[in-house]
């Protein structure tokens, strides 16, 4: 059995641990051969490959990024690219294609599976926004990095008596903001799931100032959040990526300007950006990724094509690939009362 692996979309801490788990289990338990396609869907389109064996992956348990490279190449834009992928899979004698990605990459994998390509998926995104799995790997790392940054911002904000805004990733799901904001003791958290009233935010910030108060404030803003009075989420620019996604970013700056203008409190902002995706995965993400990889090898053995690995409770299970893209997992209303308790 010849198995090809590709990683698509934004990179994510834990990808190498999955590749390692899959290759080690596949070779040791089932005697499979592996190759890697490079740079996401560009790999099978242009037939860019690298050999994968136990020696290649053995020490990749703790490295960030993806040893296969990645891209946001979208083969669904042009039917001739799908033909190319099928031709190259045949030319490389590939029996099974394992795709590791978020909703875009797994959306392509779902369509390829419907066309008869033997495909297995592994859900990947720091945003934790895939509904078919309880947690995606990489999320824990992103939250840890954001929490560490918030911890550091407390001391500088306290020293200067400033309000400090931290903008975090997450697209249209506020999970990174929610978890890092709670873990980092934020005074206010802005989520994409509910619009923020400027008056409410400014009242909270002002509550932190005065005799006997802490006299600084930490605000976490998810990149997909906005004020109620804004018609659209702020964007870095108007360009779209190959899957038609906008480039989010800028809410942190707007929040900082609004607070300073409305309250007179000196305010700064920090955009954590790709720092959240870089560097080594946390221990939890290394373990989760390794389990995903080993499960993917067993899925191939059982012929579970058109399926993907998913975490349900503490079990890794197999669910239909299409479920990954069914709906975006967002922060539910049950969290809102908790945020009200924790805000200033
Ligand atoms: O989907 C993961 C993610 O990191 C989002 O949180 C963020 O909006 C986006 O990717 C950034 O994408 P890029 O790496 O293309 O700038």
Number of domains: 2
Report how far apart the termini are.
59 Å
Low-confidence runs (pLDDT<50, min 5 residues)?
Answer: none
Please tell me the CATH architecture of the largest domain by its name.
Answer: 3-Layer(aba) Sandwich
What small molecules does the structure contain? 6-O-phosphono-beta-D-fructofuranose
Largest sheet: 7 strands, mixed
Rg (C-alpha, Å): 22 Å
List the helices and strands in order.
EHEHEHHEHEHEHEHEEEHEHEEH
Provide an overview of this structure:
This protein has 344 residues and is α/β, with parallel strands linked by helices. It folds into two domains: 2-138 and 281-325, Rossmann fold, CATH 3.40.50; 143-278, Phosphofructokinase domain (Rossmann fold). 38% of the residues lie in helices and 19% in strands. It has eleven helices and 13 strands. It has helices spanning 15-30, 42-46, 54-57, 79-91, 103-114, 139-160, 175-183, 198-207, 251-263, 283-302, 336-342, and strands at 2-7, 33-37, 49-52, 96-101, 119-123, 163-168, 188-190, 217-222, 235-240, 246-248, 267-271, 307-312, 315-320. The structure holds 6-O-phosphono-beta-D-fructofuranose. 6-O-phosphono-beta-D-fructofuranose is lined by residues 10, 102, 125-127, 169-171, 223, 241, 248, 277.
List the helices and strands and how they pair.
Layout (H helix, E strand, L loop, with lengths): L1 E6 L7 H16 L2 E5 L4 H5 L2 E4 L1 H4 L21 H13 L4 E6 L1 H12 L4 E5 L15 H22 L2 E6 L6 H9 L4 E3 L7 H10 L9 E6 L12 E6 L5 E3 L2 H13 L3 E5 L11 H20 L4 E6 L2 E6 L15 H7 L2
Parallel strand pairs: 1-2, 1-4, 4-5, 5-12, 6-8, 6-11, 7-8
Antiparallel strand pairs: 2-3, 9-10, 12-13
Helix pairs in contact: 1-10, 6-7, 8-9
This protein binds 6-O-phosphono-beta-D-fructofuranose (F6P).
The site of 6-O-phosphono-beta-D-fructofuranose has 12 residues, from loops.
